[in-house]
Amino acid sequence: MFELSVKTHFSAAHRLVGHEGDCADLHGHNWDVEIFIRGENLNDIGILMDFREVKDAVKSALSEIDHKDLNKLPAFGSNNPTSENIARFLYERLSGAVNCDTCAIHKVTVYETPGSGMSYWEEKPVV
Known about the structure:
This protein is an alpha+beta fold and 127 residues long. 23% of the residues lie in helices and 32% in strands. The chain contains two helices and four strands.
């Protein structure tokens, strides 16, 4: 089994509707993001997936949320833009862009602060 990971970051504002505390007010974060891709087989030249392809897909997904007020985006219209929902949003976006015959998104972890992160993955067979 092979696992590729890419780390990056984005900045955005959000507020948590229904939260009892400071997070109910509009505030911003510099989120760190780590994406994990797994697969059992390498391609003809011995790689799981080209890092550039992964980085391009991540950049595209993050362009939807970077430097935005997440509460105003349709992607979070019925869900609070929590770290949990941001991780799921990125997982879903990246699955459509990255998954192929030889590898697939395994997990996305979003760090709201350097010491506090949330991961999202779905239990399914690895390709």
